[in-house]
Predict the 3D structure of the following.
Amino acid sequence: MSNVTVCVRFRPLSHKERKANGDNVCFRKLDSESFVVKDEREEDVIFSFDKVFYEDAQQSDVYNFLAVPIVSDAINGINGTIITYGQTGAGKTYSMEGPSILHCNEQKTGLVQRLVDELFVCLRSSASTWTVKLSMVEIYLEKVRDLLDLSKDNLQIKESKTQGIYIAGATEISIVNSSDALENLSQGIANRAVGETQMNLASSRSHCLYIFSVQHGSTSDERVKVGKIILVDLAGSEKVEKTGAEGRVLDEAKTINKSLSALGNVINALTTGKQNHVPFRDSKLTRILQDALGGNSRAALLCCCSPSPSNAPESLSTLRFGTRTKLIKASPKSIPEVVDNVKKPILGTLDQDDLRDRILSKLRLSLKEEDVDLLEELFLQEGIIFDPNSIADVDLACQDTASEEISLLMQAVEELKGTVEEVAVVIVVQMYTCLTWPSRLQGANSHCTLQLTDENEKLRHELEVAQEIAAQAQLAAAAAAAAGAEARSRTLLGFVPAALLRPFGFVPD
Ligand SMILES: Nc1ncnc2c1ncn2[C@@H]1O[C@H](COP(=O)(O)OP(=O)(O)OP(=O)(O)O)[C@@H](O)[C@H]1O
C-alpha cells in the first residue's frame, strides 16, 4: 500500500444520467479494489486502488476505511489529511458533508460529522487533558479566505518548526463537543463561494478546508501532542470547455484548473524521483498540502466519479490522477511534543521594521554584505514577511529562498541544455549541407559551422558551470539543513562566487 491511501467512489447514477443512458455505467466491477474502464481508444484498462466504493457503498463504509486511522493518529500527534477529488457533481461534498452538515439521518451523515463525533468520544475516554480548535478556510481565486471571519480574505501561509505549514491569522474556535463543532462548520459552509455552471447548478468553485487542531496532553508530565486533521473538499476538476463558463466564472475555472494542475505537478514530482524540486509553492493549495503530501502526515485521497458513460472522460482523468497519487511514498512522523502549549512570542512586541533590522544585522555578522542584500531582496520578492512570533520562520524562509534558488538554477541548467541540443542539431544540419551542397558554397558553410561550433563550445561551458553550481547548491542545502540557520545562510550563499551567479540574474550587476 502506498503512504497515501487512495480510494475511488462511484456515486449512484443521477436522474438526468439515467434518462440519457439508462442504467449503463462506464466501468465493469472486478472486486472491491479494482474495476475495468474503457479508455479513449476503447481499450480496456484495469484500475486498482486501496478500496473502491461502488454505488451502493454507505457513508459509514467510506468513513471507516478512510478516516478512522486518521482520528486515532491525530490524537497521537500525527497529522492527517483527507482530500476529495473529482469533477463537479461527482460526490465530493456529499462524501464530506452528506446532504446537510446539520440535518441528515445517520445513514447519510458525511465524513466530517462522523470524524468530529469520534474525535470527541476518543478524547473524552482518555485520562489526559485536551483541546480541539477548528478553523475553516477556502481557497478562492488563489486567495485564502477565512470562512469563520469573512473580513480576513487574504490569509498568508507560513511554516514553522513546531507547527509545520500553517495559515497565519486564521480564526481558531475552541470546540468542546460535536454539536458545537457542527454549528460552527455550518456557518462556514454557508459562507463558501458558490457559482453556477452548466454542469452543476450549485457547484462549489473554491477549495474548502476544514482544519481541526487537536492538543492532547498527559496530565502527569504536561507533555502535549499536537495533531492536525485537514479535510479538503476540492473544487471540480473538469475541463474548462465542458463548464460552458464565461467572464468571471471562466476566470474562476482557469484558476481552479491552475491550482489542480499545480497539485498534479507536485504529485508528478513526488512520484518521479524529483523530490528535491517539488513545486509546493506554485499554488496556495499545494503549499497548504505540503506536509500532507510531503511526508509529515497520513493522507487519504477519495477520487469521486460519476458512473455515467457521458462523464467517462472526466472519470478517466480522475482515475489517472488517483493512480499517480498512489505512487507517492511518504512517511508520517509526529510533530515534536511541546512541553508548554502556550506559544511564547520569542521576540516580544517588536514591530516588523525593528525586527527586520535586527534580523538583517544578525545576518550581516556571518554573511557578506552583498549576500545580505540579495537575501533581503529575495525575501521581498517572495513576499516572505518576518513573523514577530517566530524566529524559526526566518530560518525556514532562508531554506525556502535557498530551495527557490536551486529551482531557478536547475531551470537555467535545463534551458541551457535545450539550447546546447538545438545548436548541436543546427551543426549537424550544417555539416550535412556542407557535404551535399555544391562546392562553391562549402567555404561559406564551413565558416558558419566553425561559428556554431564555437557557440556550442561556449554554451557547453556555461552548462557545465551551471550544473556545477546547481550540484553545489544541492549539497549546500543538505549541509545547511543539518547545520542550522546561520550556518545555512553562510554555506548557501557564501559558496557561490557572485560572478558565477550574475549570468543567471541572481546577483545584481
Ligand atoms: N453517494 C451518493 N449517494 C447519493 N447521492 C449522491 C452521492 N454522491 C453524490 N450524490 C448527489 O449528487 C449530487 C452532486 O454531488 P456533490 O454536490 O457532492 O458533488 P461535488 O463533487 O461536490 O460537486 P462540486 O464540485 O460542484 O461541489 C448531489 O445532489 C448529491 O446529493
